[in-house]
Amino acid sequence: xxxxxxxxxxxxxxxxxxxxxxxxxxxxxxxxxxxxxxxxxxxxxxxxxxxxxxxxxxxxxxxxxxxxxxxxxxxxxxxxxxxxxxxxxxxxxxxxxxxxxxxxxxxxxxxxxxxxxxxxxxxxxxxxxxxxxxxxxxxxxxxxxxxxxxxxxxxxxxxxxxxxxxxxxxxxxxxxxxxxxxxxxxxxxxxxxxxxxxxxxxxxxxxxxxxxxxxxxxxxxxxxxxxxxxxxxxxxxxxxxxxxxxxxxxxxxxxxxxxxxxxxxxxxxxxxxxxxxxxxxxxxxxxxxxxxxxxxxxxxxxxxxxxxxxxxxxxxxxxxxxxxxxxxxxxxxxxxxx
Length: 338
Hints:
By secondary structure, this protein is an alpha+beta fold. The chain contains nine helices and four strands; from the N terminus they run H-H-H-H-E-E-E-E-H-H-H-H-H. Strand 1 and strand 2 form a beta hairpin.
């Protein structure tokens, strides 16, 4: 069969009976078959594809604008939640103490954010973390535009662990819809002497240069000290960095997309049960939304047993996760503290 009848095959490098050179590349053979009419058609097809790309870019721009629009609409709801959780305002129907009468009940919803974070097992809240997170009064996020990305803000009441009133974690992105990540920057925590939760036993972080890997322990608050690529050299360490940075970014998205908008359902435990958030969940006449929260507290004995099982499950999960916190990783943590 001649090369002209062999489709796109160009494997025969000998001259065929017609004297043609079958050594032409497949691309040249294809071009040789394209007539001027086909060229014009392909040109129009390219224009159509270009229009599609423009629409796609417009879609991402419109989507970003839509995210900003609804983020502004969410803010008043988050502010109302903040005021109720922190006892700034009282909800209708809750009796307030008479004037001059000392209040015997705590205001707001104690340990609201601690419980919400703890119920999400992806975040791995340690026992020592809980004492500091009791002072967490709000978590917020905002989009940033130049450069692109988002910032998480953790607002704290005065506490005995660190001086910061706000801890932030900022994620920068080259592209948001992919997403293509750029870098992460966290707050440097100003620990009180001997109160750092990322060092075991507790030591003054200012003496970091004298620390060893044994002095470093895992804490939720390491979230604010993202791993740096320059601290990880060698094939094994690069793989470790990749795992840690992926976990770090996943935590950021979990807090932004799951915890902040649905904090109440994480607090009550509904989100843990695979609770589906539907449009009619805010119905004032629907008491079913409270059933799960209150029904778990009816029987104290059953609650105690369930709590014990839950604590055991949590500790097992923490031990499993901490087994990944290797000495090499601790050594890297030492480097980042110095």
